[in-house]
Automatic annotation (TrEMBL):
<feature type="transmembrane region" description="Helical">
    <location>
        <begin position="222"/>
        <end position="242"/>
    </location>
</feature>
<feature type="transmembrane region" description="Helical">
    <location>
        <begin position="77"/>
        <end position="94"/>
    </location>
</feature>
<dbReference type="InterPro" id="IPR051533">
    <property type="entry name" value="WaaL-like"/>
</dbReference>
<feature type="transmembrane region" description="Helical">
    <location>
        <begin position="399"/>
        <end position="418"/>
    </location>
</feature>
<feature type="transmembrane region" description="Helical">
    <location>
        <begin position="296"/>
        <end position="316"/>
    </location>
</feature>
<feature type="transmembrane region" description="Helical">
    <location>
        <begin position="455"/>
        <end position="475"/>
    </location>
</feature>
<feature type="transmembrane region" description="Helical">
    <location>
        <begin position="52"/>
        <end position="71"/>
    </location>
</feature>
<feature type="transmembrane region" description="Helical">
    <location>
        <begin position="430"/>
        <end position="449"/>
    </location>
</feature>
<feature type="transmembrane region" description="Helical">
    <location>
        <begin position="129"/>
        <end position="147"/>
    </location>
</feature>
<feature type="transmembrane region" description="Helical">
    <location>
        <begin position="159"/>
        <end position="180"/>
    </location>
</feature>
<keyword id="KW-0812">Transmembrane</keyword>
<feature type="transmembrane region" description="Helical">
    <location>
        <begin position="106"/>
        <end position="123"/>
    </location>
</feature>
<feature type="transmembrane region" description="Helical">
    <location>
        <begin position="251"/>
        <end position="267"/>
    </location>
</feature>
<keyword id="KW-1133">Transmembrane helix</keyword>
<keyword id="KW-0472">Membrane</keyword>
<protein>
    <recommendedName>
        <fullName>O-antigen ligase domain-containing protein</fullName>
    </recommendedName>
</protein>
<feature type="transmembrane region" description="Helical">
    <location>
        <begin position="273"/>
        <end position="289"/>
    </location>
</feature>
Length: 485
């Protein structure tokens, strides 16, 4: 005889004929405990929300702008390390589900190699070595703490918009600095001034009006620094142009592309232009693979049209100096142009640095750590110079250092490409953000051949943006039932 149904057990509700047209979805009991890797376990409050990313980006901007204020010159070191220290603090303070980004194992291996070099005989001082290790950890720390936050697609869109607006502001100011000589010019970096009058003069050019000006600095204190803002104005503007978030975003993206291209031409930084071409080609490749032909034509038309108009505008303002500078890219092979400039540093890394330091050169011997905390009185451990990121990796970990970190970048690139080529639009515009990240990451990889990208705030922005996207995509994917994944 069957047992009587308990009074506390709810009876199944009868449903009408419409149930035949409903999708059957099995749901777990409400009282089931979710595993620790689900979004439900994310911490609540400010330190558990995506607002932490927005606040951190605002801090990066404040630290960069503080370097332009002459009154704060005595405490410049504070603003240089504030963002790095905050990144390390958030690594401890932010709690939540530990999502496993594909790049994490390689980054941890790279950090381990750097830590081992702490005990290298060539290490400068314990303080400089600790600073060197701390900088490297702080740069990729956002991948670990930002991926724990509850970030959705809307919040990620805000992050992209915030980065876009700041870079457009820097590019716009760069245009004004050339158009109105002396009126919007910040103080020149003390490090640049220390290179001598001849070097400083080489960073200037004569405009069409006859005035002699520095290459546009934008919101930096380095001649040509506005080219970075110009580069990201075009790249991020391309994503806003292709977005479905309203006509205002499309117009804003198109305006950013135009402003960025004008500033890029005036900045005369050829490496930034070549990198931008590579990035836009990468975005076009993803659009082609995923079959989004209309968006591909839109992007090519807008960027191509603005490229022609912006060049005419830049020549009209900058004069023959702009025209002759950019003509060098077509007058000779671009690889020869790179080889005669930054390429020699790459050759030196493999021909001289690695044979001398196959396991690393010790810590605290180059860069900001050495400049602020190093003691170069020991002739047995003289300071070293790292112009490009590959040389820095060789100093920090030798041959293995040139393997681990690049593998982390390749893993990040591949994951972004996998998301970008998806045809399913039911998850919003993740394919668009994946296309942007793929191009953005490829650009960052290219810039490692030009300067120490992953020893700067730009490197932190790189891992922050990738972590925010990874968290947003994972949280959205976790909210979708398996039958729709």
């Amino acid at each position: 005889m069957k047992e009587a149904r308990s009074a506390s057990t709810p009876r199944p509700q009868l449903r009408g004929p419409g149930v035949l047209h409903s999708r059957y979805v099995r749901r777990a009991p409400q009282t089931a405990v979710q595993p620790s890797s689900t979004p439900a376990t994310a911490s609540t409050g400010l330190l558990g929300s995506g607002h932490v990313v927005v606040a951190f980006i605002a801090l990066l901007f404040v630290c960069q702008l503080a370097l332009l204020v002459e009154a704060l010159a005595p405490v410049r070191v504070v603003f240089r390390i504030l963002s790095f220290g905050t990144s390390l603090a958030l690594l401890v303070l932010v709690k939540g589900p530990r999502l496993k980004h594909p790049a994490m194992p390689f980054l941890l291996a790279s950090a381990g190699l750097t830590a081992l070099n702490f005990f290298h005989p060539g290490t400068n001082t314990p303080l400089a070595a600790a600073a060197q290790l701390g900088i490297q950890l702080a740069v990729f720390a956002p991948l670990f703490w930002a991926s724990r936050l509850r970030i959705d697609a809307k919040m990620f869109g805000r992050v992209v918009l915030l980065l876009f607006l700041f870079n457009v502001a820097s590019a716009s100011l760069g245009i004004l600095q050339v158009s109105f000589p002396g009126r919007f010019q910040p103080a020149l970096s003390a490090m640049v001034e220390s290179q001598g009058e001849g070097y400083v003069r080489s960073l200037q050019f004569e405009t069409a009006s006859g005035a002699r000006v520095f290459r546009p600095m934008g919101l930096t204190d380095v001649p040509g620094g506005a080219s970075t803002g110009a580069f990201y104005s075009v790249l991020l503007g391309g994503a806003l142009l292709l977005s479905r978030q309203g006509m205002s975003r499309k117009v804003l993206g198109a305006a950013g592309i135009g402003i960025g291209l004008i500033c890029l031409y005036l900045g005369q930084v050829r490496v930034a232009a070549v990198t931008l071409i590579v990035c836009m080609a990468a975005m076009g490749l993803v659009l082609t693979v995923s079959g989004r032909w209309v968006r591909l034509v839109t992007l090519a038309s807008v960027v191509g049209g603005f490229a022609v108009v912006a060049f005419g505008w830049a020549v009209a303002v900058g004069g023959d100096a702009v025209l002759s500078r950019w003509s060098t890219l077509t007058a000779s092979d671009p690889t020869q142009v790179y080889q005669s400039n930054r390429g020699r540093f790459l050759d030196s890394t493999f021909d001289e640095v690695l044979p001398e330091f196959p396991l690393g050169a010790g810590l605290g011997r180059y860069g900001m750590a050495n400049a602020y905390f190093g003691d170069n009185s020991d002739r047995a451990s003289p300071p070293l110079w790292a112009e490009i990121q590959w040389t820095a990796w060789a100093y920090d970990g030798g041959w293995l250092g040139l393997v681990c970190y690049p593998l982390a970048l390749l893993a990040t690139l591949w994951w972004g490409f996998q998301v970008a080529r998806r045809r399913d639009d039911s998850r919003g515009e993740f394919w668009l953000w994946g296309s942007l990240l793929f191009a953005y990451d490829l650009g960052a990889l290219a810039q490692t051949f030009s300067y120490q990208f992953f020893m700067s705030q730009m490197g932190m922005e790189f891992w922050l943006l990738n972590a925010a996207f990874f968290s947003a995509y994972w949280n959205r994917n976790a909210a979708v039932h398996p039958h729709r994944r």
